[in-house]
Each structure stands twice: as structure tokens, then as C-alpha cells.
Design goal:
mainly alpha
């Protein structure tokens, strides 16, 4: 998992790829917990929080882009 500072340095494409990877990992882990192959439910919470951080960074980049677009003269 990357730190927030490392996430800030990623491009939008890299954030999208990281989000897809974490989502897949989260689904796999949810399956193993539901089938009782693991008891490590703390990892689920950690992955959910990490995914939320990634999505927050994506939204911040989107808002920044929108604000730059809105400030352009017509």
C-alpha cells in the first residue's frame, strides 16, 4: 500500500490502475473471509480505507481539473 504522499504523486491513470488492483484484492479477500478460509477481517477494513484514500485522490484531481477549466476565459 502506498502512503498518501505517494498517492499524491501518481497520475490519474496510475490511480485508476491502483484502484482496480485494490478493488480486485478486496473482492478476493471478501471471498476468503466469507468461505471461512481466513479470519483476518482487519485486512478488509484496511483495504477499504486504502481504496477510499485512492478514490479521494481521484476526486481531488477531478475537482482541481474542473476548477482550472472553469477559470479559463471564454
Amino acid at each position: 500500500m502506498l502512503t498518501i504522499e505517494e498517492l499524491k504523486k501518481l497520475s490519474s491513470e496510475e490511480l485508476r490502475k491502483e484502484s482496480e488492483k485494490v478493488t480486485l484484492d478486496l473482492v478476493k479477500l471478501q471471498l476468503t473471509v466469507r468461505t471461512r478460509q481466513t479470519q483476518d477481517t482487519a485486512k478488509l477494513q484496511g483495504l477499504r480505507k486504502y481504496l477510499a484514500r485512492i478514490k479521494t485522490m481521484q476526486r481531488m484531481m477531478q475537482m482541481e481539473l474542473e476548477s482550472h477549466t472553469n477559470n479559463l476565459p471564454s
